[in-house]
Amino acid sequence: MADSLYDRYMAADRAHREHEGQCTSCSPETGCETGRRLYESLARLQDAYLNRLRNEG
Ligand SMILES: [Zn+2]
């Protein structure tokens, strides 16, 4: 079953992890500019995904 929101959430998660794995300036507390941007979009998608799960009950 296709779920584009879930797919985008997973893709953002993967992109963020891959960046963290490669980036030497990212740390758990402070990411570099790209790391922060990836994290923000991951957090936004995660919120949207969890909200939808809650609303669908
Ligand atoms: Zn980084």
Plain-language structure description:
75% of the residues lie in helices and 0% in strands. It has 57 residues and is mostly helical. It has one domain. Helix 1 (4-22) packs antiparallel against helix 2. The mean pLDDT is 91. Zinc ion (ZN) is lined by residues 19, 23, 25-26, 31-32, 34-35. The site of zinc ion has 8 residues, from helix 2. Keywords: Plasmid.
| Low-confidence spans | none
Helix content: over 70%
Number of domains: 1
The N- to C-terminal Cα distance equals: 18 Å
Mean pLDDT: 91
Which molecules are bound in this entry? zinc ion
Approximately what portion of the residues adopt beta-strand conformation?
Answer: under 5%
Radius of gyration: 13 Å
How does the overall form come out from the CA principal axes? elongated
Instruction: Give the biggest beta sheet.
Output: none
- Count the E strands: 0
What string gives the helices and strands in order? HH
How many individual helices? 2
Keywords: Plasmid
List the helices and strands and how they pair.
Elements: H1 4-22, H2 33-56
Helix pairs in contact: 1-2
The protein binds zinc ion.
Zinc ion binds at residues 19, 23, 25-26, 31-32, 34-35.
Keywords:
elongated; mainly alpha; binds zinc ion; 2 helices
Question: What is this entry, summarized?
Answer:
By secondary structure, the chain is mostly helical. The chain has 2 helices and no strands. Helices cover 75% and strands 0% of the residues.
